[in-house]
Structures are given as structure tokens and as C-alpha cells.
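User: Quick one: structure for sequence A, then sequence B.

Assistant: Sequence A:
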Amino acid sequence: MTASRWRIAVPCLLGLLLVAGCKEVQDIREEMGWSKQREAPPPPPVVTLETHWLPSDSVVDGQSQAQWVVRWWQWAGRFGDEAPYADQDGSRCAMHQDGAVWFLAGTTGRGDAVRNCTIPAGRHVFVPLITWAIDGGDAGGGMSCEEKQAASARLADHVNTGLVLIDGRPVGQLQRMRVAAGDCFARSPDLPASSSDGYWLMLKPLPPGPHQLAITAAYKEGPRSMMQNFRYELDVQGDPDVSDGDEMVLDDAAETAATP
């Protein structure tokens, strides 16, 4: 090709690049102000389940959380010597579950636990952070219901920390998670009436798919102490055919806490 033809071809090629443009040329044009800059893509949405947490003054399926505390302890009492809070891997997660609320357990306070659990979509989740049931021992130990209530309340009063993480994000406010059971109740037919006080987490139905729920809480009263530290790898399965409109707020918030 002759020099004169090169002088004609080069501007044409440059013109084509500026019109059609490779990425580098387009970037230079935008920096020089020769063309309109492209808008940056919107950031990915932040996924949070904070709105799924229900404080202790919320009603679920027509029952207060104090009533759900009683039902939780009665659920735990159905396992006999293999209580769900002694489960290490989640193998007891689906046992004795029915109704609108799916119960999860804490630990005995003597060790950590990591559990795998499959939950049907559309179920609320109720789990203790740290809690106690006081029955007074054999035949009630001569304690009145009022004395048992005072004993469980004193334990809950000395909870000094509590944290809930869902999918790695903190959820809830500890001071709004305390729930006392109210009247004394029977956990199982072979035990005297109990009182309960502690800190609990009530969740609206989680979206289908995997979720991680991690809970830690601690109690200390003088030389006495207890630590809760456990994690659930949850798999929510099925069609979430539920409504979030079944919760209402009571006038008076019951402040509480939970773990066996």
C-alpha cells in the first residue's frame, strides 16, 4: 500500500474505532467528555431479615409469647431422657412438631452445638436464647408458685449478654426478648408445676432456602454462670403460602429470656 493510501486509511480506521469503539476507546471518549458517561449499575440489594423478628409483646397464631413459652417447655417435655436441648447435630429437630410455630432448642449450657434442621416453609420459629424452668425438685420442694416465679425471674435478671445472628447479620433487641411464662404450668405429667423466665426469639416464616441462625447468651450471678452458644444450619423447604398479618402487638410488653 502506498504512503498516500495509508494517509487516507488511518483516519478512516480511527473514525471507525471512535464510532463503533472498543472498550478502551469508549472509556477515553467518556473521560475526555466526548461522549455521555454510562450510568453505573445499581448496587445489589441488601438482604436483611430484621423485619422477621417479633418482639416479646407480639401475638402469633392467636397466642402470646408467654403462652408459646409454656408450649415450648411442654414440647421439650415430650422427649423423655433425650431432650432436644441435649441434641448435638439436629437429629431431633423434626420430632413432635405441629402447628404454626416450629420449636428449636438451646443447649444444656455445658457445651456448644451445631445442628442441621429442615423446616417447612410458612412456619414461625421460636427458640430460647437462655431460659430456666423452676419446678422446686421432687414434689415441688415445698415451694409455692410465687416462690418459683421469683427464682426464675432472679436468674433471668442476671443475663448479661445475648446476640442473635441470622445469615451473619445481628437481629433483634435483647431487652425486648424477655418472656416470662406467667402462671406455673406442668411441663410433663411426672413433674411438679414449673415457672419459667428467660429470653426468646420469635421469627416470622423465613424465605425458602438455606439460612444460618447463631445464638449466644450468658448469665452470671456471683460464682454461678452459664453460657449458651449454638448454631442452626436451616433449610427452609416448600411453598411459603403465608401471610405476615397474623401478628398483633399487646398493650403491655412482657420482657423475657430463654435456654434450658
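Sequence B:
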Amino acid sequence: MVARAAAAPDLPALDAAVADCFACPRLVAWRERVAAERRAAFRDQTYWGRPVPGYGTSDAVIGILGLAPAAHGGNRTGRIFTGDRSGDVLFAALHRAGLANQPTSVAADDGLTLAHTRIFAAVRCAPPDNKPSPAERDTCAPWLHRELALIRPTLRVVVALGAFAWAAWWPAARAVYGHRPPSPRPAFGHGAHVSLPEVPEMPDLLGCYHVSQQNTFTGRLTPAMLDDVFGRAKELAGLA
């Protein structure tokens, strides 16, 4: 898989290779089981049931790094953060920030386009209980590394959604930019900002609580907090 990822000459080729990955037996079994059994509300739909590629522009200046596709969201629709409550919150915020043409993301053919932005996940298959194992994270890492390498010429800031994505960023940054992460590694927190002036080609990193229902329903993450993060991302990317 490492060779397949490294050989992808562009994002369309990478996306096609991602969607054809069968490297992690537990994740393959889970994504296919969910696609076969389906949730009652979606029983008449055909699930994607495969790894979910990134989505957005090839000249992105802002990257949004998530954890993994949702079982009945991206694993159903075939597009990251599409068709679930997390996506409802995320794309509404991107629309308010002027980074998406519409505030909803319900299906892969719904007309959504992103401006200056690409969204991708550390793990490309829906994991049981939303918890990929460390081995699955590491097996999937070459896809993330290659995606970052392909958008490296324009990428200026990465927003890490949650502690898992924050932790996944550091080995990816080392693989793509060839520099050791700070030691000790900066702690994750909402609004945390890491800039490495000594490595000017490396994007700034912003922390953001994940847009999960656990956070948004309890008020731990509010629309105003998201607006602040994406406003800061636009400033760092030179869009504001």
C-alpha cells in the first residue's frame, strides 16, 4: 500500500487508489457489514461501503484533518463528513466562512463545492465505535502522507478536528516535510496554534474540538467557536 500511495501522480489517482484499499481486515469487515445491514432510516439506499477519499480543491490553502468516516455518513454516501450530524455542523460553519458554496452536505451529488479547502481523514474507513486501532492508523498513514505531499505547494494551515487528528498530524508532517516535531509535542486544545518559524514551508496547525454530536449537543463546541477557528485559519492562509 505504501508503494501504491507514493505512486499516485495526482489527487484523482490517489482518490481512486484509496477507494480500492483492503489493507485492514477489521475495518474492511466492519464497513462492509454496516453497508449490508444498513440503518433503518437508510434501508432503501445503497451504501458506499468502501474507504472514503478526501474532498476539496487541489490547490487548497486550508486542510481539515478529521478522524475517520462515520459508519452511516461517509461510509454510506462516499464523501467525507457527508450525510451525518457532524457534517451538518462542519459544512454550515464552512459556508459561514465563505469556504463552501452551501451549508449542507447530504449526498455526493448534491452540488457541494469547497473554496481554498480540502478535507481528509487520518483513517479512511469507518471504524467500529469510531475507534481505529494504532495499527490501523499507521497502516492508513501513507494515504494521508501522499495527499499532503500533493497539496504541499499551496497548503498554509491545517485544522485538526480532535485529539486523534492532532496526534496524526505530527508523523505526517515529519514524513512530508522532513522535520522532527517539537519535543515535547504541543498539547491539543481547542484554539491551540502551532507555528514553526524555523520550518517556513510547514503549515500552521490549529486545534479544534471535533464536530461530533458528543461535543455539539453538549455545548462543548458551539457555532461561534467554529467560526473563530475558521476565521483564524483564513487569516493564517492569507484569505482574510
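Strands lie at 55-56, 62-66, 117-121, 157-161, 193-194, 204-208. The chain has a mean pLDDT of 96.

User: Thanks, that's what I needed.
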